[in-house]
Amino acid sequence: MELKGKVALITGAAAGIGLAYSEELLKQGAKVSLCDIESDIGEQVADELGSKYGRKNVLFCQCDVTDYPQYEEAFEMTIKVFNRLDIVVNNAGVMNDRFWELEVDVNLLCACAANFIILSSKLTSHDLIKLIPKDSESAGPDLPKYE
């Protein structure tokens, strides 16, 4: 897939795998909407990536993926600023079984919410990238895994 000129929305984009996805997509010529709950870190990362890859190619949306209206607003802001949305990376994740309800909200329901937002929108072009852990038993033969 040619990424030059494509627009990606990435959750959990201020650090870790989300940041790596953001930087790689920018290197390939895509525009990136960084979505993260951590606004201070997110703004800083957006400034750094904007300086490196062009400020017009980077947007930061403070977003708690468990807050549906806020998550939907991140999609709307991305489309408003970049005029399109081609790629969604559901990367936000929580691993703490003491807070299993939060795990379900972030790790499962936000992916469902993203699907609903995309399907109910008037997007004309999009690819939905789903990340499923390598050892996940829920991964099917047609679903990509990351290592």
Order of helices and strands: EHEHEHEHE
Overall geometry: globular
Which sequence of strands runs across the widest sheet?
3-2-1-4-5
Q: What does the radius of gyration come to?
A: 15 Å
Structural class comes to alpha/beta
The main β sheet shows up as:
5 strands, parallel
**What is the average per-residue confidence, as pLDDT, rounded to a whole number?**
79
Distance between the termini: 20 Å
Count the E strands: 5
Description of the structure:
The longest helix has 21 residues, at 100-120. A 5-stranded parallel beta sheet has the order 3-2-1-4-5, sandwiched between helices. Helix content is 43%, strand content 16%. With 147 residues, the chain is an alpha/beta fold. It has helices spanning 16-27, 39-53, 68-82, 100-120, and strands spanning 7-11, 31-36, 58-62, 87-90, 127-130. Helix 3 (68-82) crosses helix 4 (100-120). InterPro entries: NAD(P)-bd_dom_sf, SDR_fam. It comes from Pararge aegeria aegeria.
